[in-house]
From TrEMBL, chains A, B:
It comes from the Bacteria. SUPFAM superfamilies: Winged helix' DNA-binding domain (SSF46785). Residues 10-80 form the Transcription regulator PadR N-terminal domain. It comes from Antribacter soli. Residues 93-173 form the Transcription regulator PadR C-terminal domain. Pfam families: PadR, Vir_act_alpha_C. InterPro entries: Tscrpt_reg_PadR_C, Tscrpt_reg_PadR_N, WH-like_DNA-bd_sf, WH_DNA-bd_sf. This is PadR family transcriptional regulator.
Length: 193, 193
DNA sequence: CCACGCATGTAAATCGTTACATGATTAA
DNA sequence: TTAATCATGTAACGATTTACATGCGTGG
């Protein structure tokens, strides 16, 4: 069985409206993109599985060979149980912090580049979320929209936190650089005396 | 070859001080725990690989059969190149937001439970980081400690952001509940008229 | 002497992405 | 007509965790 998380995402997507696998991938990428992702390789097998179990129904698509999937009553019930059981915390992996932790090897200037990149990404993220907020039609899916706004807000809080941290960090790194904690040179005199 | 990320973590750990595979696992879990994780199944094969490539050296351990690994000069040089190339962004997956997005199916009260849990975790995280900050001996690894503090700070910013978001969200969910957007009942009258 | 912590390693299982093969439909 | 987009699915690969098998050393 595909992971419960993927099943949740797929059934959840269909709880908004029936759609094809392709459309689901697009919907997840654009709407859930700031906190979730699924690939075709997950979506199609999961849909097939859910169909076998009678949790989704395959209907006629708009073109030959395509099908729109829809939730069955059993599927909606199953989604409720999936949503109810506690989210499994995945092990944290932050590439920026990993590099920064070993920053002594790299030196303050290179670390500052790293942090500036992270800051830029957060800034763009923030702008993107603000755009989504204003662009989106709130009347179309009025019942779902308050919950959607909560996830947007989460993204904004996280991005602002990253920006604030980055600014503090850049100041710290500047003083570190001034104090002369330079990066280790490519060929260290300690290693080849 | 094991992933560059894992190699970076392993070489990085040895850049602080030589240690056994077992000790490395402990060090990563306790010190890098709030932003990174590695399991034995990754660490041992990676160490063997790096040894083959002459990037780490296996020395005598304190007991029979055990070995302490240390960085070679080539290993240190390789670590610098690994740290320099840009962090690969992994696809986001936030189980709490996934559940909240489909909150309409679950109802505002159950969503509030979810958010309260997330808030609790963030609060504990914050307390844990504060404890680490005060407990740790800054003189032992003085050269690495400023960079370590930057990662602690990142965790604190993120946790505070989660707490602030959770409080806002709980207020919003309370008004939603008051307006009567209850969860869908276990047996919907729409599905069985 | 025995339970627990230190220590190493492998095998299997899980989870997920990427790339490919294939074809229909539509807009230029 | 041809390129782009919609659409489905599979195969291969990669990354990572978990569980297991094994044994040394030490404190109670």
């Amino acid at each position: 069985m595909r992971s419960r998380q993927t099943r949740t995402a797929v059934l959840g997507a269909l709880s908004i409206q029936p759609m094809t696998g392709y459309a689901m991938r697009e919907a997840i990428r654009t709407t859930l993109g700031h906190f979730w992702s699924e690939s075709f390789g997950q979506i199609y097998p999961t849909l097939a599985e859910l169909e076998q179990e009678g949790l989704v129904e395959r209907g006629e698509g708009t073109r030959t060979g395509s099908s729109t999937f829809a939730l069955t009553p059993a599927g909606r019930a199953h989604l409720r149980t999936l949503l109810a059981d506690p989210p499994q915390p995945d092990p944290p992996r932050n590439g920026v912090l990993l590099r920064l932790f070993f920053g002594r090897v790299l030196g303050p200037e290179a670390c500052a580049d790293l942090v500036r990149d992270a800051r830029d990404r957060a800034e763009r993220q923030l702008a993107g979320l603000a755009a989504e907020r204003t662009d989106t039609d709130h009347t179309a899916h009025a019942d779902d929209s308050p919950y959607w706004l909560l996830t947007i807000s989460a993204g904004e809080h996280a991005a602002r936190a990253t920006i604030a941290w980055a600014d503090e960090t850049l100041a710290t790194l500047a003083t570190l650089a001034a104090e002369g904690h330079g990066g280790e040179p490519p060929t260290s005199s300690k290693e080849t005396p």
